[in-house]
Structures are given as structure tokens and as C-alpha cells.
């Protein structure tokens, strides 16, 4: 061997060095030359194969990545869609709840006067009865009927009569405490529920309502109508059914009517 | 093959649907909370798909919808997506959503539907 320079460290340098050895005329008779040539050829083949393999597997990797990306994009779209569906659906549900609440309110109110109706009053009386039974509290019911209301209708017509009824309802309602409940029971008849209230206090409240009714005016002319009302008043007793209480209030009211109206009868 | 018109009678829980193959107008009226919404909307979705493939005419949706349950919301979104695809391919499509002025909440709902869509989508009161 004529060439004794050190073997280069990098691939390209080594290739060049091998090449120089092979073509060097000084090595042309070296018996190992064909073997070296064979090894170099094989080495080149292997490198080529390795590169091809890498390129192909890189291709597969890119493919898989693209697929994942598209799946991810697709699933993000689906999530967005689902979110949109839920948002819209929630809004519909919210509307339904509101409609429901409106209906519920409408179902418990007297449409003319806006006072509670019979159904709402019964519900509240049932609750009060429960409370009275459990905690031995008391409550009082007043049944109120406007005296000679037919005359108002006959004199001023039904439309004005209805407006007077609304003023009467306001007069009753504004003289109650906020935990009392006034309801239109029918026609010109009203029911008043006074929770945690004994007879003496109840009587005072009823008198206050009567006084307010006396001041009700005809909206158009401002003329005072001198409205009076008869009232039957009764406390809830012991373990009785509330229907008995209502019944008693009714009878007391009848008595108030018979005894000349514009008065409170207690039973 | 010629397109047939499609008429679906309305009921308490399903809207009336009229698909006119001659005018390219679909109108839907009423509430939508069918028991089986897949089955109910199947016919409409097929009709729209067929119309978009077999004709080149414009397609207009006129909606007078009030209440919709969740699966009906999804079905409507599917239909809007079909229109959006067609629109992106140059097809003339539009949605006109009409609401009762007594029920302004429907506006917000329709706006929510309209989000992300690029074809003409109007929301107006039936009075206008």
C-alpha cells in the first residue's frame, strides 16, 4: 500500500479516500482490490435502499398525519355543531318555561281584576290549613260581598260596572298586609285570607277595607259611589276541613246581609 | 326524471311542509316536535337533496316555525348545511324566516341558526 494518509472521519471523505485507493495504479495488482470494489458497490446499494425505505415510511407518516388532522378538524366541526344545537335548544326550552310561567299566572289570576282567583285562593287556604295543623297557628277567612252592586251595573252599564269592580279589588288589595291574600270569589264577592291573624285583628282589617270601599269613586266623574260591603268573618278551628271554615264564613256573610248589610258578622 | 312536489300535512306536533318543484319554494309552518324526527324529516331532506342534484333552479325556504325540539333543530341545521354546500358551489339558495311579532324571541333563535351560513338568510316579522 502506497497510501498511508489517515482515514477521514466524515462519510464523504471516506468515500473519496476509498475511491482514490481503488483507482490508484499502485494498487492495481493488489489481490484485495476486487473484494474492496465489491464491498463499495454493496455499500452504495444498501445506502440507496435505506433512503428509499425512509422516503416511503416518511410518506406513510405524512399520510397518517393528514388523516389525523382531517379527523380532528371534522370532530371539531361536529362539536361546534352540537354546541350550536344545544344553544338553540336551550333557547327553545327557556321560551317554553316562560310560556309556562305565563300560563300558570293566567290560570291563578282573575282576568278582570288581576286579583287571585278561586283556584289560587283554595291553594293558599290548603297551605294555611297544613301550617295550622302542624304548628297550631291560626288564620281567619273573610267573605265579602259588595252591597247593591247590581244597582251600579244598572245605573252605569256593565263596562263601567267592571271598572268599579277593578277599583273595589284595588281598594281591598291595598288594605291588606303583604302576606294576606285577597281573591275574587265570583261576581262581586271576594274572599280574604288572613294568616296568623286572630279575630280582633281580622275585624280591624275588615273595617279598614270597608272604609276604603266607601271612598271608591267613579273613574270618569270622580263621584263617590258610597260603596258598602257585608262581611262574614270566621277563624279556622282546630282540625276542621277548610271547607267547613269557608262554609261558616258564607253563613256569617248571609247573616250580615239579612241583618241589614254594611256590617261584619263573626262566626 | 322530473321532480315531484312534496306535501306533508301539518299536525299538532309537526309542521305543514309544502315543497313546490315548479317554483323551487319550500314552506314550513307550525310547531316541530315529532315523536320520531328522523322519520319525519327524512322525506324533506331527500327531496332537497334530489332537487339540488336534478335541477339547477334556485331553492328558497320560507319558514313560519314556532317551537322546535332538539332533534328538529338538528334536522333543520342539516338542511341549512345542504344549502350552504350548494351555495358554495354557485347555486342560488335562500332562507326567509318569518316570525310573529308577538313572539320576538324567535328572532334570536333564527339568528343563532343563521350563524356560520353565508347564503342569503332573512329574518322578518310576518307583518312586514
From TrEMBL, chain A:
InterPro entries: Diguanylate_Cyclase, GGDEF_dom, Nucleotide_cyclase, Rev_trsase/Diguanyl_cyclase. It catalyses: 2 GTP = 3',3'-c-di-GMP + 2 diphosphate. It is an enzyme of class 2 (transferase). Pfam families: GGDEF (PF00990). Its EC number is 2.7.7.65. It comes from the Bacteria. Residues 137-267 form the GGDEF domain. NCBIfam families: diguan_SiaD, GGDEF. This is diguanylate cyclase.
TrEMBL record, chain B:
It holds the Pfam family SiaC. Residues 8-125 form the SiaC family regulatory phosphoprotein domain. InterPro entries: SiaC. NCBIfam families: phos_prot_SiaC. This is Biofilm formation regulator SiaD modulator protein SiaC.
Amino acid at each position: 500500500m502506497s497510501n498511508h494518509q489517515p482515514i477521514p472521519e466524515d462519510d464523504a471523505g471516506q468515500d473519496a479516500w476509498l475511491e482514490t485507493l481503488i483507482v490508484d495504479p499502485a494498487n492495481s495488482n493488489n489481490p484485495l482490490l476486487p473484494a474492496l470494489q465489491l464491498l463499495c458497490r454493496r455499500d452504495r446499494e444498501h445506502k440507496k435502499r435505506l433512503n428509499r425505505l425512509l422516503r416511503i415510511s416518511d410518506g406513510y407518516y405524512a399520510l397518517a398525519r393528514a388523516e389525523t388532522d382531517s379527523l380532528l378538524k371534522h370532530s371539531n366541526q361536529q362539536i361546534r355543531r352540537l354546541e350550536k344545537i344545544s344553544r338553540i335548544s336551550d333557547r327553545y326550552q327557556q321560551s317554553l318555561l316562560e310560556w309556562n310561567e305565563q300560563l300558570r299566572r293566567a290560570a291563578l289570576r282573575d282576568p278582570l281584576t288581576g286579583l287571585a282567583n278561586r283556584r289560587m285562593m283554595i291553594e293558599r287556604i290548603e297551605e294555611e290549613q297544613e301550617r295550622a295543623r302542624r304548628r297550631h297557628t291560626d288564620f281567619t277567612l273573610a267573605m265579602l260581598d259588595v252591597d247593591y252592586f247590581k244597582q251600579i251595573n244598572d245605573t252605569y252599564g256593565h263596562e263601567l260596572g267592571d271598572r268599579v269592580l277593578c277599583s273595589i279589588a284595588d281598594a281591598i288589595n291595598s288594605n291588606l298586609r303583604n302576606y294576606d291574600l285577597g281573591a275574587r270569589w265570583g261576581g262581586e264577592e271576594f274572599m280574604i285570607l288572613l294568616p296568623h291573624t286572630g279575630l280582633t285583628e281580622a275585624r280591624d282589617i275588615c273595617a279598614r277595607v270597608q272604609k276604603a270601599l266607601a271612598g271608591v269613586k267613579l273613574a270618569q266623574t270622580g263621584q263617590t259611589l258610597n260603596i258598602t260591603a257585608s262581611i262574614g268573618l270566621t277563624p279556622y278551628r282546630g282540625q276542621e276541613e277548610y271547607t267547613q271554615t269557608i262554609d261558616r264564613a258564607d253563613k256569617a256573610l248571609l247573616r250580615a246581609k239579612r241583618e241589614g248589610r254594611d256590617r261584619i258578622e263573626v262566626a | 326524471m322530473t321532480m315531484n312536489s312534496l306535501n306533508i300535512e301539518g299536525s299538532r306536533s309537526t309542521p305543514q311542509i309544502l315543497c313546490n318543484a315548479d317554483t323551487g319554494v319550500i314552506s314550513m309552518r307550525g310547531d316541530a316536535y315529532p315523536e320520531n324526527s328522523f322519520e319525519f324529516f327524512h322525506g324533506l331532506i331527500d327531496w332537497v337533496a334530489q332537487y339540488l342534484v336534478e335541477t339547477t333552479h334556485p331553492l328558497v325556504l320560507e319558514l313560519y316555525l314556532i317551537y322546535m325540539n332538539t332533534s328538529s333543530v338538528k334536522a333543520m341545521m342539516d338542511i341549512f348545511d345542504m344549502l350552504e354546500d350548494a351555495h358554495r358551489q354557485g347555486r342560488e339558495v335562500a332562507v326567509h324566516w318569518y316570525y310573529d311579532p308577538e313572539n320576538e324571541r324567535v328572532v334570536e333563535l333564527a339568528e343563532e341558526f343563521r350563524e356560520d351560513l353565508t347564503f342569503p338568510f332573512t329574518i322578518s316579522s310576518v307583518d312586514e
